């Protein structure tokens, strides 16, 4: 090992929590290698791999000790998060921000459509086709957006008969008045954004990226699914929550930061956990097993967590706030009207009465006379910015043209400028401008 690697290894090991030990290294090492292969995990250096092994072994010990007790209704496993410290896990997989919300809930549980006279003994909206596939928020704290879209997907299926997977990325990018993208948000604010926007786009058209980007305003106008409003279930009222879930999938906040929740595998999760809400999920049903009542909860951590992405959480816990605070902040969207008709398929982009560019392209004026464009060129980027030199265009994410340095820039949050990762000419092809710019023949 060279001196630099030795130094990095020592530094990484010093970062480990002091309680981590190296018990049973040979057994844990074999399990770790198998786990890496199963999850396709590779590391950039031997030092990083050893650090991750130390973290993995601590989680290995925690899971083994817990499962060996054998007196719980749920079990743990070395799932996809087994090489993360608990601090790393909490920093990357949560994102619910309920501060101030519980004191200002303006839409109480009401409405004739929400009343169920005879509540079924069990309900599973997955069996009724009202739940889309389990999604993965990645290391972006956008759980609130997944909870909101999941609830809207459910009511849309119930009202229209069509199950459509909706765009979390649109909420992450565009819903910025009160929500904060990967830094957290609230489902009620997401519902209000969609109401104000007159709808939301599909996941296929505006796919999830796991990071914040500039809002794509053209896609913001694609109102594929609409909602009429939203309703808040009365805080700490489990009977009303049960009635709501009997009607449709419901968004809730929970405490998802417990270590046992990180490594949950199967069974009815009974805690322990606090009621400090920091994660958003979706209740898609309820049931009972051996006399123990539970909620069926859809998470947004992918299918390699829990029971293919789901967890059964204790219901009727005897605490009005519910296990992990699940009764504290529940809400759901309302919908009675059909969705708007789909827009006509996009066609060519019209530059003027005589000139068109292709679908998804942007018209850029190449020559003008007395303020009137007399010659057009097409930029192979949607909603692009045409540069003043009439030779280049820039992507919407990097809208500042620096024609002297031949760069596309974007303005960072602190007002500074950053060079674009991609540089494009009017042809729309990536690469170094000095090698790909072709003069326009006018």
UniProtKB/TrEMBL annotation:
Name the lineage.
Eukaryota, Viridiplantae, Streptophyta, Embryophyta, Tracheophyta
Q: Does the keyword Zinc apply?
A: no
List, for all copies, the residue spans of the domain called Peptidase C1A papain C-terminal.
119-334
According to the UniProt record, one GO cellular component term is: plasma membrane
> In which family does this protein belong, per the annotation?
Belongs to the peptidase C1 family.
Please tell me the species this chain comes from. Juglans regia (English walnut)
Q: Which Gene3D superfamilies match?
A: Cysteine proteinases, Granulin
Tell me the keywords, alphabetical order. Answer: Cell membrane, Disulfide bond, Glycoprotein, Hydrolase, Membrane, Protease, Signal, Thiol protease, Vacuole
User: What GO molecular-function term can you cite, just one?
Assistant: cysteine-type endopeptidase activity
Signal peptide from the UniProt entry: 1-23
Name of this protein: Low-temperature-induced cysteine proteinase
């Amino acid at each position: 090992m060279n001196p630099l690697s030795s130094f990095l290894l020592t530094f990484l090991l010093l970062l480990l929590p002091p309680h981590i030990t190296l018990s049973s290294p040979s057994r844990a090492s074999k399990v770790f290698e198998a786990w890496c292969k199963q999850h396709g995990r590779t590391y950039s250096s031997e030092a990083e791999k050893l650090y991750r092994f130390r973290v993995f072994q601590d989680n290995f010990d925690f899971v083994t000790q817990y499962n060996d007790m054998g007196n719980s209704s749920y079990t743990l496993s070395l799932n996809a998060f087994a090489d993360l410290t608990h601090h790393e896990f909490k920093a990357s997989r949560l994102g619910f921000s309920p501060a101030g919300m519980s004191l200002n809930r303006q839409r109480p549980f009401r409405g004739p459509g929400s009343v169920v006279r005879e509540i079924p003994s069990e309900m599973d909206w997955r069996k009724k086709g009202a739940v889309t596939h389990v999604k993965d928020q990645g290391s972006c704290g956008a759980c609130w957006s997944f909870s909101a879209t999941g609830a809207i997907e459910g009511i849309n299926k119930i009202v229209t008969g069509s199950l459509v997977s909706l765009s979390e990325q649109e909420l992450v990018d565009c819903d910025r008045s009160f929500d904060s993208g990967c830094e957290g948000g609230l489902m009620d604010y997401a519902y209000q954004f969609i109401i104000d926007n007159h709808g939301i786009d599909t996941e296929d058209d505006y796919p999830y990226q796991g990071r914040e980007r500039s809002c794509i305003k053209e896609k913001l106008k694609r109102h594929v699914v609409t909602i009429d409003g939203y309703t808040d279930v009365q805080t700490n009222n489990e009977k009303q929550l049960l009635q709501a879930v009997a009607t449709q999938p419901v968004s809730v906040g929970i405490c998802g930061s417990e270590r046992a929740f990180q490594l949950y595998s199967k069974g009815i999760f009974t805690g322990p956990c606090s009621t400090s809400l920091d994660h958003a999920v979706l209740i898609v049903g309820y049931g009972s097993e051996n006399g123990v009542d539970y909620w069926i909860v859809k998470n947004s951590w992918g299918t390699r967590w829990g029971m293919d992405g789901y967890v059964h959480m204790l219901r009727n816990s005897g605490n009005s706030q519910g296990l992990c605070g699940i009764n504290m902040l529940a809400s759901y969207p309302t919908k009675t009207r059909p969705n708007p008709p789909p827009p006509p398929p996009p066609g060519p982009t019209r530059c003027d009465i005589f000139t068109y560019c292709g679908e998804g392209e942007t018209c850029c004026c190449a020559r003008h006379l007395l303020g009137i464009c007399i010659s057009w060129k097409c930029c192979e980027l949607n909603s692009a910015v045409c540069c003043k030199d009439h030779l280049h265009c820039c992507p919407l994410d990097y809208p500042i043209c620096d024609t002297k340095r031949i760069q596309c820039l974007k303005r960072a949050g602190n007002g500074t400028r950053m060079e674009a990762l991609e540089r494009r000419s009017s042809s729309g092809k990536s690469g170094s401008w000095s090698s790909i710019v072709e003069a326009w023949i006018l």
